[in-house]
Amino acid sequence: MFKAMTHRITVKTAATLLLFLMVALFLIGRELNHFFPHHWAWGFLIAFSEAAMVGGLADWFAVTALFRHPLGLPFPHTALIPHAKDRIAVNLADFIETHFLRSIVLARRLKPVDAGLFLLRLTDNKITADQALRHRLRRFWPQLWQHIDYPAVSDEIATSLLGMVRKSDPTLALGDVFKDALEKKKQVALITSVLQAFANWLAHHEDMIRDMVSERSGSFLRWTGLDHHLADSIYDAVNRLVNEMMVAPDHPLRLRFDKTLWNWAEKLGHDPAFQKRFNRIKNAFLDNPAARLQLQSKIENGLQGFLLKSDATEILPISSNSRFPVLWAEWGQAVTEDRQTKAALNRLFRRIIIGVIVPHSHQITRLITDTVEKWDGDEVAGRIEKAVGGELHYIRLSGTFVGGAIGLLLHAASLIIG
Prior knowledge:
Helix content is 84%, strand content 0%. The longest helix is centred in the last third of the chain and has 41 residues, at 377-417. The protein is rod-shaped, with a radius of gyration of 42 Å. It is an all-alpha fold. Helix 6 packs antiparallel against helix 19 (325-337).
């Protein structure tokens, strides 16, 4: 700051000293011409210094008139910035909103930003152990997630997930998973749980099942009263079968079902026709709009529930109480190394930033106009002059030399014509 201020003072002082130097040269040239008349050099010296004074004074007046009245005199159309500060604030706010806070502009500006590197930094325990960073994250975390466009973000995630699932062929992997689960007898507990749930359902709907069987019996059975006996027999047989299968993993029906599962696992891994049929069913499910909406809704609700109710210290490895610092660090490293995942992460990052800024662009620009309108006109002029005054004083230097050069040319032209 001191260096910049010194630079501005130096330029301003140099421009002023140069102007006084031109005055001195003009006076010296007049005196020399008086004592040594008719010498060709004095004409050029007087013409140069005279025109340089005019150029320097004109540019001094122009630069000064931007910020205040020159010499304190109220010349028309001077002190432009103090008088037009409100209009300047509105135009500046409109310019910023139009050219910087639009979604297209932000997306283009954010495209070179690598969110993966930022994520990698957040997964580094050495960096996130910083106390100041921890404090900023705790304070910033809830404010960030409140302004996210969750429908847009969840739509992006759902699109990415569905696209990856559509392009992939999971049959081989599913076949291996099925085989591994069957070899470890994991289906036993699952089937037992399903049978238990079915047995509970039968117990809770016993009367309904008996009435349904009775209603669907023939009129002869109802006339003879055998419909109730038939309903009891069917219900008891189904209930007994379910309970037998539930307690006996080696029940013939369960063994047959296990065989069917083995057959499916084998076909998933080696039968091209079965694999093609499975992928066709998978794509048909993915093409279902209801399935997409359901997935998007689940993602949106999950994100809101997770991010809005979470503390940054629970998600990021910034404390010893973090739930998964090691897994988080490994995941961050993996994400930054995978090109496709990194691209998806950068798209998500741009969505988040744009979702936070664009809906509030008018409030941001309104803050600019309100702040500038509250400032005094002279204060605004002083702030702007501090920011760009140094460059403007270069105009005074240039104007002095350009004016002197024009004076030389005009004097030379007059000599040639004369």
